[in-house]
Design a protein that fits this description.
Blueprint: E1 2-5, E2 8-11, H1 18-38, H2 44-90
Antiparallel strand pairs: 1-2
Amino acid sequence: MDFHLLGQTVSLRTDLPEEMVEEIQQLLREREREINRKYRFLPPLKVAILLLLQISGDYVKMKRDQEALRQALLEKASQIEKYLEKEKSSLGCS
C-alpha cells in the first residue's frame, strides 16, 4: 500500500484495513494543510514534528478522557450495586 504524506510516497505493508489507512491519510493531510496555512514555509521535518505532536496530544487527551469515563462508570456501577443491596435487604430478600 502506498502512503502519501508531506509530499512523499512510501510503500508500506500493514495489517490495518485499507479504509482505516485511507482515513488516517485524510486526517494527516487535513492537519498538514492546517499547519501549512498557519506556519508558512516550514520545512517538511518541522511539519512532521508538529503533526506528531498534535496527533500524540490528541491521543493522550483521549486516553485520559477514556480513563476518567471508566472511573466514573465504575463509581456509578458501585453506587447502583449498593442501592440494590440496600433495597434487597429492606425487602427482606437474602
